[in-house]
Write a structure and sequence with these properties.
By secondary structure, the chain is mainly alpha-helical. The protein has helices at 4-7, 19-42, 48-51, 60-81, 85-89. It has two domains: 1-52; 54-108. Helix content is 55%, strand content 0%. The two termini are 35 Å apart.
Length: 108
């Protein structure tokens, strides 16, 4: 939880921490934690051998999302390997700049 105030500000500015900010961060932490607990609870009976869908049978949207996730992972790894934390931070909070729902570096 102590890292959340740092992630919620611009990477080049020092965060301003006060009681209101800490309260907001605690609320955000509880929401994320609750969501992850719910998602993990739904995976309790998941067996990849029985439930996995072959890649070529996935819907086009799922294949695209897997492709974009792999691209983002490569970009993040390259940024962290070269200590470009600002480039890596654009994939975290705050939301990317640009039109709503548009990731940086993608065409509309």
């Amino acid at each position: 939880m102590t890292h959340l105030p740092h992630r919620s500000t611009h990477p080049t500015r020092l965060p301003q921490i006060g009681s209101n900010i800490l309260r907001q961060m605690a609320d955000m932490y509880r929401k994320v934690r609750g969501t992850l607990r719910f998602l993990l609870g739904n995976l309790a009976d998941y067996d990849p051998r029985a439930h996995a869908v072959p890649y070529d049978q996935l819907p086009a949207l799922d294949r695209f999302l897997l492709y974009r996730t792999a691209q983002i992972n490569k970009e993040l790894a390259a940024a962290y390997d070269t200590y470009q934390v600002g480039a890596a931070a654009r994939w975290g909070w705050p939301a990317p700049a640009g039109p709503a729902g548009c990731w940086p570096g993608t065409a509309i």
